[in-house]
Amino acid sequence: MPSSTIRRSVKNMVNNYSDAEKKVRESTSNDPWGPSSSLMSEVADLTYNVVAFSEIMSMIWRRLNDHGKNWRHVYKALTLLDYLVKVTPHP
User: Which PANTHER family does the entry link to (predicted)?
Assistant: First the structure.
């Protein structure tokens, strides 16, 4: 198990992140590969819950405000937002 995965798990536990926030953090991680479509699909499914939607958007906003060595957070947050806009049906 990579140290980044262990570090992320510890941060998730210490900060008491919800399941939705954990999925957003995982899909917008600093890992050198993009978020999986299955993980983005899980996040999209969670957006139908009002509380989870708020948590997801808050975490995405946090990721969009990262900079410097965390540029992948921004890039992957934009990728996730793009996926959510295209996949999630609008009322």
Answer: EPSIN-2 (PTHR12276:SF50), EPSIN/ENT-RELATED (PTHR12276)
